[in-house]
Amino acid sequence: MLRIPYQELFDNLLRVLLKLGFEPERARRCAQLFAETTRDGVYSHGLNRFPRFIAQVQSGIINIDAQPELVAASGALERWDGRLGPGPLNAYQSMERAMALSREHGMGCVARANTTHWMRGGSYGWQAAEAGFIAICWTNTMPNLPPWGASDSRIGNNPLVIAVPRSGGHIVLDMAMSQFSYGALASYRMRGEPLPVEGGFNREGLLTRDPAAIEASNRPLPIGYWKGSGLALMLDMIATLLSGGRATYQIPPDPERESHLSQVFIALDSSSLASADQVAEQIITHFQTSQRSPEQVRYPGQQVLRIRSENLAKGIPVEPSIWNKVKAI
Amino acid sequence: MLRIPYQELFDNLLRVLLKLGFEPERARRCAQLFAETTRDGVYSHGLNRFPRFIAQVQSGIINIDAQPELVAASGALERWDGRLGPGPLNAYQSMERAMALSREHGMGCVARANTTHWMRGGSYGWQAAEAGFIAICWTNTMPNLPPWGASDSRIGNNPLVIAVPRSGGHIVLDMAMSQFSYGALASYRMRGEPLPVEGGFNREGLLTRDPAAIEASNRPLPIGYWKGSGLALMLDMIATLLSGGRATYQIPPDPERESHLSQVFIALDSSSLASADQVAEQIITHFQTSQRSPEQVRYPGQQVLRIRSENLAKGIPVEPSIWNKVKAI
Questions:
Q1: Structure confidence at residue A75 as a pLDDT band (50, 70, 90)
Q2: Which of B134, B171, B241 is closest, CB to CB, to A279?
Q3: Is residue A320, in this structure, part of any structural domain at all?
Q4: Fewer CB atoms inside 10 A, N or C side of chain A?
Q5: B95 and B214 part of one domain
Q6: For residue B21, is it within any domain?
Q7: Number of structural domains chain B divides into
Q8: Is B322 on the interface with A (CB under 8 A)?
Q9: Chain B within 8 Å of A7 (Cβ-Cβ)?
């Protein structure tokens, strides 16, 4: 593993995006979102996903110049068409707009149809929290998870992001509805480790901690078994209904062609709430002083801050093969 | 198990509430919410919880005459004080108000502080769906769940409800953040059955399917391990911040004295959405035609409709001991 400074990472991503024809301001925003995701340790959705993003631009899945379009407005709630623009830019603009609606109406919601992969969902939680907003946002995905009781993938792992600002470190939950992503399963398999908890079914239909057995059956487990299965379904339904876009079952089950996603962004201005920062601080303090089991008790987002500062200090770890590929463009 | 007609159940609950001094219209609404919950098969939060509700009225935890009070309003977002009124009445009024705000602002949110136990959270999802609204609501609870990595209960199991209306049967998710409630653990133990999946830790800190071992350690498991732990924390934070009320850590860890709860109710009018009913129908059809494993693939709310119609036809099952207690009041 190689470590490179943040600025070098950003500059190279920016250079590639400009070369692909991105308008300069959009290239900067997009490079920033990929670079920050990598800086924060979410390598799977940062630099390591950048080659696929580029491939989707080149294959026309992503339209780099598409500007989102307001389709319908009803007070605090707006429906936008993402017109297959770059997912990170669409998502960033959606959260900006939800925050603007919130300033005007107390809360704001943007439902976006026809967008492309937003990469790290947590980015839009951090974006809102930095601006002092409480945020809830989620996306549907292609079918990649069997409902509880089923063997074929009919629901998405539909990442859900919830963010609360706090001066001592924002609290940002960024979780998919599968207990382990396929990327996580592959990592455990390659390290030769069993999963820490049951992660899916084997081909015989039995729950297992063997990552390879789950990859073979294509039956990862929803969080909380029947509960995450239901939650994934509801998130897909609401995103589809509010955006007027496509549901999980209408999205091609192929990561290279995953497109026409539906997303929801809700923002609430917490600066208007009395002593919000103190309240958040007290809840986190109480949470963190739990009696500890072997593991540490971490709040969502805590680990990100630790990795972020380590990576800024020591350089950001990159896969040499991917890094060389980006530098060669 | 005895079965009694819905009307007889309702009439008896109403009679008791009137005798306790409830104003007639409030008594009717409250009796209806308890009776419908029992009718729908959620016995733990229907008739079986009624004696504790009565005890809380008699001990002064619940103030039967308290009317909720609007504390602050900002467009689509309102903050209300529940003034320790009956939880079901407070929650019902909150959802009514969120729906009214939604008609005016596209979406509506009521955050309510200082309320008492809302009983079945799903009731307010069904209420919204019946009126044609998409709804998301949740409550915090007393500390009853250890965070992931901890051994003492510092988070609540914070039930989350999401509802989408559909003419073919509403889709209503009603889930707590613990994989199994203490009530569910007791049921498995009394039947002498292991849990179908790991439900918590034993005293040695190992994951187990033995319900008695989890009752002994007081360490039930959050859904999705670290994920449900984080989600429970976020729900508590947002409910506390928006309502200006108390967080889980400020609520006495005693079911008899659980009070001053904070809740959030969000409503979106789906009647304004083009072809919403068809879209919901298609998603559910696709979900239900999954390749089946041993279990059936059920959408959230499906089982409720089956039990509801069976109980209306055959009579509602009641525990004779509890039923006799109610009749004797």
A1: very high
A2: B241
A3: no
A4: N
A5: no
A6: yes
A7: 2
A8: no
A9: no
